[in-house]
Amino acid sequence: MKKIIVLASCMLLLPMAVMAGTKKADDNKAAVAACAGKVAGDAVQIAGKKGAMVDATCQDVKGQLVAVVNAPAAK
Question: How is the chain split into domains, by residue range?
Answer without folding.
Answer: 2-69
